[in-house]
């Protein structure tokens, strides 16, 4: 952040310097024509000189300002790629060895149970790795969209949250194919399912329904009043500060929906629950 702030200051100072330089060159042009007399030849010579000086000065300024940032971006990109590569190796090793040990320990139930916990943790670690790789790649390259079926995608995410042993999820949807940035879509759904769980009692169900092209996630949790609804997309806002989290989930959801052209609507009532409606018409294929 400090680097960006300093970089902005440099750009502002450079813009002011460039503006002053152009003003001086125009003054020179005025002085030259006033003293030498206005003619087509004098205007072309003086004008060409002014343009050359302005272009050269602009090139020097832009090179000085942009070169360090381009170098920094290249270094960060290379460092990120190397870290991701190094993370992938031990992760793959853990998963491969866990799989082999699982086959050998079929008769030893306690050891097998522990092994399954390691396997579940490595799956979560792999998920985090993919999300990290996705976030870094998204900053460097445009993410290519892919066609996915909605039911298996949602079922996979619901299975993950049901493994926490909290709320029951009731899914009532017919299948539908969508074309989206898949990992971004999964992260959006994860945020919405996590919020539904976080603000609901453990014994209340969470419904995931599809009506037409509208996907709905409905909980029976603490809900929000109108004042809270107005702030719900604000970054770092949390309706209940006693709950875990940093208050950025719905801001990320809104940003993703805006990018994909998915209209989002949140309907909520205090002590009654919250419904999140996602209109998938724009991404339906």
From TrEMBL:
One of its GO terms (molecular function) is phosphorelay sensor kinase activity. GO terms for biological process: cellular response to phosphate starvation. InterPro entries: BphY/WalK/GraS-like, HATPase_C_sf, HATPase_dom, His_kinase_dom, HisK_dim/P_dom, HisK_dim/P_sf, Sig_transdc_His_kin-like_C. It catalyses: ATP + protein L-histidine = ADP + protein N-phospho-L-histidine. PANTHER family: PHOSPHATE REGULON SENSOR PROTEIN PHOR. The keyword Transmembrane applies. One of its GO terms (cellular component) is plasma membrane. Keywords: Kinase, Membrane, Phosphoprotein, Transferase, Transmembrane, Transmembrane helix, Two-component regulatory system. Residues 82-284 form the Histidine kinase domain. The chain crosses the membrane at residues 12-31, 43-61. Pfam families: HATPase_c, HisKA. Its EC number is 2.7.13.3. This is histidine kinase. CDD domains: HisKA (cd00082). It is an enzyme of class 2 (transferase). The keyword Membrane applies. It comes from the Bacteria.
């Amino acid at each position: 952040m400090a680097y960006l702030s300093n970089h902005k200051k440099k750009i502002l100072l450079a813009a002011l310097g460039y503006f002053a330089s152009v003003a001086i060159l125009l003054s020179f042009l005025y002085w030259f024509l006033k003293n030498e007399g206005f003619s087509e030849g004098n205007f072309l010579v003086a004008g060409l000189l002014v343009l050359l000086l302005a272009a050269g000065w602009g090139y020097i300024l832009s090179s000085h300002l942009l070169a360090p940032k381009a170098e920094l971006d290249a270094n960060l990109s290379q460092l990120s790629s190397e870290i991701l590569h190094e993370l992938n190796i031990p992760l793959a090793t853990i998963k491969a060895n866990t799989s082999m040990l699982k086959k050998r320990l079929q008769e030893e139930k306690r050891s097998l149970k522990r092994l399954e916990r390691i396997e579940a943790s490595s799956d979560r670690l792999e998920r985090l790795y993919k999300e990290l790789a996705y976030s870094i790649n998204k900053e460097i390259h445009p993410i290519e969209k892919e066609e996915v079926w909605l039911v298996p995608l949602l079922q996979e995410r619901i299975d993950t949250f049901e493994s926490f042993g909290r709320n029951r999820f009731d899914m009532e949807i017919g299948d539908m194919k969508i074309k989206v940035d898949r990992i971004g879509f999964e992260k959006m759904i994860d945020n919405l399912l996590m919020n539904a769980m976080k603000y609901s009692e453990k014994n209340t169900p969470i419904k995931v329904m599809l009506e037409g092209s509208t996907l709905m996630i409905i909980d029976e949790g603490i809900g929000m009043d109108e004042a809270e609804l107005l702030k719900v997309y604000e970054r770092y806002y949390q309706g209940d500060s006693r709950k875990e989290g940093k208050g950025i989930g719905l801001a990320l959801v809104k940003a993703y929906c805006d990018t994909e052209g998915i209209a989002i609507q949140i309907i909520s009532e205090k002590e009654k629950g919250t419904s999140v409606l996602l209109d998938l018409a724009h991404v339906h294929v």
